[in-house]
Amino acid sequence: MSTAEITQEIVQELLHYDKVMGELTWKPRARKWFDSDQDWRRWNNRYAGVRAFTYINGNRRWGCIVGQNCLAHRVAWLHSNGHWPGKIRFINGESIDIRLGNMIDTKPPITPLRKRLAA
């Protein structure tokens, strides 16, 4: 599954995003995401309720969702806004701070209306 196939619906099913605190945590997962009951129980016992996207590299938070490595701020944006962001600018300059109020999409996605206006 590519990031283009990761939707807001999937992200909201798998993650809780606290927009004020800027934290992503794993929700308990449904059985459909696992090959066995044992894997399902093991995952939920270990990760449900635990902070997600905690790997930090280059002052950015990273994590993996449905087999794809993603930046935490991009997943948080998708969770809240329903689409992948273009280019995110951080108001306070701290890219590790993924509070929704700290992020601005400086390059919004091309919509049919924007295509017509650009023509």
- Say what the CATH topology is: Homing Intron 3 (I-Ppo) Encoded Endonuclease, Chain A
The CATH level-2 architecture is identified as: Alpha-Beta Complex
Structural class label: alpha+beta
State the end-to-end distance.
Answer: 33 Å
Beta-strand residue fraction:
15-25%
CA-based shape:
globular
Uncertain runs are none
State the domain count: 1
Give a written overview of the molecule.
The protein has 119 residues and is of the alpha+beta class. It has one domain (3-118): Homing Intron 3 (I-Ppo) Encoded Endonuclease, Chain A (Alpha-Beta Complex), CATH 3.90.75. The chain is 29% helix and 23% strand. The protein has four helices and seven strands. It has helices at residues 8-14, 37-47, 72-81, 112-118; strands spanning 15-18, 23-26, 55-57, 60-65, 68-71, 88-90, 103-105. The strands form three sheets. It has a three-stranded antiparallel β-sheet. A two-stranded antiparallel ribbon has the order 1-2. The longest helix is centred in the middle third of the chain and has 11 residues, at 37-47. The radius of gyration is 16 Å and the shape is globular. The model has no long low-confidence stretch (mean pLDDT 91).
SSE arrangement:
Blueprint: H1 8-14, E1 15-18, E2 23-26, H2 37-47, E3 55-57, E4 60-65, E5 68-71, H3 72-81, E6 88-90, E7 103-105, H4 112-118
List the keywords:
single chain, 119 residues, alpha+beta, Homing Intron 3 (I-Ppo) Encoded Endonuclease, Chain A, 3-stranded antiparallel sheet, two-stranded antiparallel sheet, 7 strands, 29% helix
Task: Give a quick summary of the entry.
The chain is α+β, with helices and mostly antiparallel strands. It is 29% helix and 23% strand. It has helices at residues 8-14, 37-47, 72-81, 112-118, and strands spanning 15-18, 23-26, 55-57, 60-65, 68-71, 88-90, 103-105.
